[in-house]
Amino acid sequence: MGEHHHGPAKGLTRWLYTTNHKDIGTLYLWFSFAMFILGGSFAMIIRAELFQPGLQLVHPEFFNQMTTMHGLVMVFGAIMPAFVGLANWMIPMMIGAPDMALPRMNNLSFWILPFAFAMLASTLFMQGGAPNFGWTFYAPLSTTYAPPSVTFFIFAIHIMGASSIMGSINIIATVVNLRAPGMTYMKMPLFVWTWFITAFLLVAVMPVLAGAVTMMLMDIHFGTSFFSAAGGGDPVLFQHVFWFFGHPEVYILILPGFGVVSQIIPTFARKPLFGYASMVYATASIAFLSFIVWAHHMYTVGLPVAGELFFMYATLLIAVPTGVKVFNWITTMFKGSMTFETPMLFSIAFVFLFTVGGLSGVMLAMAPVDFQYQDTYFVVAHFHYTMVAGAIFSLTAATYYWLPKWTGRMYSETMGKTHFWLSFFAFNLTFFPQHFVGLAGMPRRIPDYALQFADFNMVSSIGAFFYGSSQILFLFNVIRTIRSGRPITDPKVWEGAQGLEWTVATPAPYHTFTTPPEVK
Amino acid sequence: MAANNIAKTVGKLAIVAVGMFAFVFVVMVPLYNTLCDVLGLNGKYSGKQYEVVQANVDKGRSVTVQFVAANAEGMPWQFRPVEASIVIHPGAVNTIEFYAKNITGSDMVAQAVPSFVPSRSAQYFHKTECFCFRRQPLKAGEEATLPVQFIVDQDLPAEVTNITLSYTLFDVTAMDKASKGVANR
Amino acid sequence: MFLKAKRLSKLTLGPVLLFLSLISNGAWAAEAESWRHRFQFNLPIGATDVGAQIYGLHMLVFWICVGVSVVVFGAMFYTVFAFRKSRGAVASQFHESTTLEIAWTIVPFVILIGLAFPATKTLLEIYDNKSADLDVMITGYQWKWKYEYIDPQGNNVSFFSSLRTPQSEIYNEEAKGQDYLLEVDEPLYLPVNKKVRFLVTGNDVIHSWWVPELAVKRDAIPGFVNEAHTKAIKTGIFRGQCAELCGRDHGFMPIVVNVVSQDEYDAWLGKKKAEATELKALMEKEFTLPELVERGKGVYERTCVACHGVNGEGGIGKPLAKSAIATGDIKTHLGIVIHGKAGTAMQAFGGQLNEVDLAAVVTYERNAFGNNMGDSAQPVDVYKLKKGQ
Fold first, then answer.
1. pTM across the whole model
2. pLDDT tens digits, chain B, 185 residues: what are they?
3. Closest-CA residue in chain A for B117?
4. How many helices (H) and strands (E) does chain A have?
5. Phi, psi of B115 (to 5 degrees)
6. Is the dihedral of CA A401, A404, A409, A410 positive or negative?
7. Range(s) of the domain holding residue C380
8. ipTM of the complex
9. Does one domain contain both C209 and C75?
10. Active-site residue, from A164, A394, A407, A470
11. Which of B41, B65, B68, B106 to probe by mutation at the C interface, max C CB count within 10 Å?
């Protein structure tokens, strides 16, 4: 096994100068958890204000800053870096590589992130307040009518984009060049595959986002008129550019989650993943389709009818590969020998709730009906079923699943299961009623609402407070594990675990696979 | 060897990333503008003057053309069509007028942005003369009638019997000053 | 706290009442009806044929989703129940089946095609833009709507429609009315059984005009006129809201549409036109100071109070009490109200308020909040200032 002669440096400089994929993975994971708490506290403010009709806590202006910052921090600060952290930790260990292909760039791509988010968060204290135009920042609300802090927002987005692009290039370079002998593409674990595809999506669309914000910057400061009708531009162009980035982006947020679940379910079903090849092809098809469906976010903007039809058909088509994945997961469990440790519970909940989100997605894809759904709480419920029960649940599952390998200590199963059941019920309590208020006519992003929405909103807020506070249990469990969890040394950790990462010692040594393993 | 391969992979991916950034500016924006031009979306159509080729007037067919005026934010001018609507024959040359008055105490420059309903009618609506082709200055208190001369194409789909042409007037005084400043430098 | 407890108890009571109404269909019915209103959790069928079609499509896709859920989750829960290690399940090792995989690629595909057909049909109907009986131009403003009835002869009727709910209800100083946040000062009137074409545009940022029961949601984009159609087949009052984030008061620009009989509509339109004529007459009239202050108070409370405060103490806007503008030159004061102040939240009200209201509100501001200026602006002054004289 790849034992190595030197361990990590001591103190703060270890983390500042580290080029070790495991250290950088850890940094990413802690950073993203901090952002999860920050974005979560914004959500708590939103739900507290929406607890009752009337304005009690915050002004509408500040409320808009909260919805905007919640979205930005969760998407770019919590989910994306968390998956990059997992990729850093696991991809080299899964393909038998000694480290990432570009360790120094790896360090850089992490360390610019805290600056980006410090800049973004600092806008909350600026004259005119933080960005208040929604995480989708539609022009001209985000250009001509934006607060002065929009320039800092643009720079923060640029830095995050640079970080993501570097991270993705690193992942692709690692997967392409550093696979152990015998580790062919079609032998790679599904987590590696989904990340490999995600990384291509990122390289393709993060520059598009950079282009969009650059055009905003030029409109605001250099007198161009990309998005201003007065100067011959068009605000609708912004939406096309944004969603050309934005739709692949939402798959970037979920595909690695598919990978995680595809690792965990076979382990606890003690049965190989069903339909490995079709899983890979389904992921690739979803990635491809994500480039031709962007305008389904814009059904009400006044597209020609032919355009509406095209985007409706293409969007409906996504249900096919997504369905294949769900069926494969269920069939993997079928005739298995299942146990329900915390990672498995989160993974099963993922399959269940993500499918609910997928089905409401099919409803939303129907252009004529979307005229009633568009920009209501129905949409909010839909994307939280995919983003929270999808991305966040899979991240939580991954943490419980690999934490013993990372630390050499076992987490508290009781606490983990409590965390799961609290999260599961609180999540549904929060977001299921939002389907109803949305259908009943409540628009999203409003700080106050009519009386007929009051009861469901109160239920939703109570659920959100429970969900938020149950994450403290998660944090506590993780810290307790690191400090005083029951030590374990079995390389496999889980009875049914398969794959290279389970062949190295537990806890994983600082350097693994310095001599590549032979894969049969 | 591995390092060499990694460098190659990174090089290719860097080209893709830079290419996608460029793609936004050199492909998406012009492509969108072209599409809008062809389909008449978002009133971007007919930014240019139409050259009259040969107009065969189709007397047998009548189309109602309606005119609507709107002011964008911060535009205090009075702005309205002189006639609310006219009935025309495809192929014939028509002239209508809009009335504008700068009611403020300072000189201003405006830009009119056209928009068509139904939007696909835009590609059949040819302007041979229009105040929307250029910026329109008016001195303090000055008024003007602004002509639009147009031909509706005979190829206009038969089911379109009504075209609404709307102009939104934007205040571009500051923009105009900035660009003049550049020109004078 | 008591109020919260009361609402929570109602929360559980509501469905019970609804159930009771179904079995007793008597005394409980009225109470249950109000609960149905509170517990609306589905799309409204609405007042249009297209809306009913959309509703049908919504229910169709909903039940298909339910069916799919029953099959998929049924299989999943059975699996989770039956194949647990604790029940002695031994894992088999199969991991592919081409037949199965092809089947569950094709079956969803077929279902989706089944959905695409009716969706296409309804969509084409929504986009059917053949001859309308009436044109209404809708312009979204931060944060109100402007409606303009386009008259073929050019005698357009236009007015602004903004939130009527007082700040005191929003800030919980008074009990909230039944139509809290869904009430406006001037609703849009439409005749029943007439096809109406909306020309939707935006003045500043993008808004979206949405009335669920008319099955219309269209983005209002500055510089671009969008079209939408509706044909209400029953009369009634229909409420909606702005559906696209448009800045601070996005949640406070509701829409109220009053669909009435043709006669009522004609009478209303006639009244609106008469009002316009009356306004012309008013403009020539000389008002006394108390008349203007009284009228101005009303205008102030509708238009200015959100930013400048009940006592002119300011807030988002500058304080007016003892301010340099409200106690300075009256022409400057009028000018700022008419043209706004660039780079601030102070909008140009010249296009939104009529001459009489502008004169009245300025007079009120100069003679309230301890500003005892004693002077007044007349509508004709406003008219002259607007004309740049």
1. 0.88
2. 577 889 999 999 999 999 999 999 998 888 888 887 777 665 554 455 666 666 677 788 888 899 999 888 888 888 989 988 899 988 888 899 999 988 777 889 998 888 888 888 888 888 888 888 788 889 888 889 999 888 888 888 888 888 888 898 888 888 777 766 544 43
3. A302
4. 16, 2
5. -150, 140
6. positive
7. 285-386
8. 0.92
9. no
10. A164
11. B68
